[in-house]
Design brief:
With about 280 residues, the chain is mainly α. The chain has a single domain, classed as Glycerol uptake facilitator protein (Up-down Bundle). The protein contains twelve helices and no strands. The chain has helices spanning about 5-20, 25-50, 55-60, 60-80, 85-95, 105-130, 140-160, 165-185, 190-205, 215-225, 235-265, 275-280. Helix 8 (about 165-185) packs across helix 11 (about 235-265). The longest helix is centred in the last third of the chain and has 32 residues, at about 235-265. The two termini are about 20 Å apart.
Length: about 280
């Protein structure tokens, strides 16, 4: 058997979500720090490969290149193993829907994971993106200057170019796709299958310009650290709040609740096979 059926995916997802709340706080924090850093690596390479491409020549292709490169982040999260808030927004509530854990367990896990993701993203933004000179400053020559201009364009669009309603809705669309990528990765039993399942949903949300709260924990602080004008902490915090709320709705309403209703609502509480649960835990 090379892939799990949707009903099996649902059972493995429940076990995975419940298991994520049973670890000590320090392990959750370290795991989520790594995930924040991995998403930031994906965001940084996405900026790098899409910088310097004139839209008058390339049209919207830079966003496609950016989306393809950004998939590195979730590949690292799922294959290497770490805790990403946007994925946990789907997996952990699903465990609560089946009665494996409580609502306070969900709240504690998501709060701690968001904090760890933020610390990891900020670390990469400050030390590995700006302090290294990979992202330059205004007027810098060569690749650092191009990456600065690309980052400025992205950050200004997210912090200043979207209304509150648009940011929220872009957050919904983003995490609907991200969680579908995580969900489909649970169907695969090989690394190559998981990577393929992840690639298209993640590429799509980035190419469409949707808002991922953890990615924005990199983009907006990196812009502030690099000195992009008009992007401040007030606009950044508001973006995180709106994008995070949208991400939560996209995960819980459109993935967790939908698949709970389709495959779990009227079914007995069956345990997945140990090998499947162990493999899925890394998501």
């Amino acid at each position: 058997m090379t892939a799990r059926e949707p009903q099996e995916i649902a059972r493995v997802a429940v076990a995975t979500g419940a298991k994520k709340t049973h670890r000590t706080w320090d392990k959750v924090l370290v795991s989520s720090f790594l995930a924040g850093a991995y998403i930031a690596f994906g965001a940084l390479v996405a900026i790098t490969v899409s910088s310097g491409l004139d839209p008058e020549t390339w049209g919207t292709l830079p966003t496609l290149f950016m989306g393809a490169a950004f998939t590195l982040g979730l590949v690292l999260v799922l294959i290497a193993g770490s805790d990403l808030a946007t994925g946990n927004m789907m997996l952990v509530p699903l465990g609560a829907m089946r009665g494996r854990i409580s609502v306070p367990d969900v709240a504690r896990n998501l709060t701690l994971v968001l904090l760890g993701n933020l610390l990891g993203a900020l670390f990469v933004a400050f030390f590995l993106a700006v302090q290294t000179g990979v992202i330059g400053d205004a007027g810098a020559d060569g690749s650092p200057g191009l990456t600065y201009e690309r980052l400025a364009s992205i950050a200004e669009g997210k912090a200043l170019g979207e209304s509150a309603w648009q940011t929220f809705l872009r957050g919904v669309g983003c995490n609907w796709l991200v969680c579908l990528g995580v969900w489909m990765s649970l169907a695969a039993t090989s690394v190559s299958g998981k990577v393929l399942a992840i690639f298209f949903p993640i590429m799509a949300f980035v190419a469409m310009g949707f808002d991922h709260v953890v990615a924005n924990m990199f983009f907006l602080p990196a812009a502030i650290f690099a000195g992009v004008p008009d992007v401040g902490w007030g606009e950044t915090l508001l973006n995180w709040l709106l994008a995070g709320a949208g991400n939560l709705v996209g995960a819980v309403v459109f993935v967790s609740t939908s698949y709970w209703y389709l495959f779990l609502k009227d079914q007995p509480d069956e345990q997945p096979d140990p090998a499947g649960a162990e493999s899925a835990e890394r998501a």
